[in-house]
Amino acid sequence: MTNNIYPPDHLLRKWESLIIDEEQNVDVVLYEAFQAGADQELEACCEWINRECGNGWGHGTKLRAARRPKPPSLKEQALEILEINNDVDSQLNAAHYNILRLALESLPD
How far from 21 is each of 25, 27, 29, 98, CA to CA, in Å? Predict the structure, then answer.
């Protein structure tokens, strides 16, 4: 692993274009750049762990899954809401109602 992480040239050009040509908010570009750096660091750490501990143990994959968990799917969210609100007298809040509605709308007719 190196101590210095630099963004690839194509990302630098992209961010520069977003700020100068497209007049994108600088904060938005900085957040994207920060995330890209964090992702690059995570990948470097995963590679190092796999090299040091052996890839067969899957430590790098476990680290990546712990640090970049996938958000629950719409179906998983809807099922969780139903599990939480399985009481006859419970009332859905607006956010829960919208998740259930979106989940049902995504089902084929």
Answer: 11, 16, 13, 37
